[in-house]
Amino acid sequence: MYPRVSQGRRLMGVTIDWLACYAISLGFFAGSGSFVDRVPEARIPVLILFFAQYLISIALGGASFGHRLVGLKVVRFSDGQASTPLQALIRTLLLMPIVTAITFDENGRGINERLSNTVLVKSR
Length: 124
Fold this sequence. Notes:
Helix content is 55%, strand content 8%. The chain is mostly helical. The protein has a two-stranded antiparallel ribbon. Helix 1 (7-28) crosses helix 3 and helix 3 runs antiparallel to helix 5.
């Protein structure tokens, strides 16, 4: 069994990812004007960018930008090896409706982890 990763670390990792995507969306996709004028234009681009960066980084490197900063990585639950691209896709799709990521079982795994057969572990 894998040691549990604290909910604080999980939340910090996803928050870092979200804020990075939000900053990029505001800078490149939200047009010009004041901050208040640009925020509504960044709503859809931030979701698309978050989805893409999370999927690609998990599929290719096993950890998103935020995961790396807080010392986490995603592995297969069954054998501890790197997750497959299909598992990364399932995990990412189920992360988008955030309720699946914050509903935990007795092992500390969210619905997105159980259905993708992955687990978030410490990388250090």
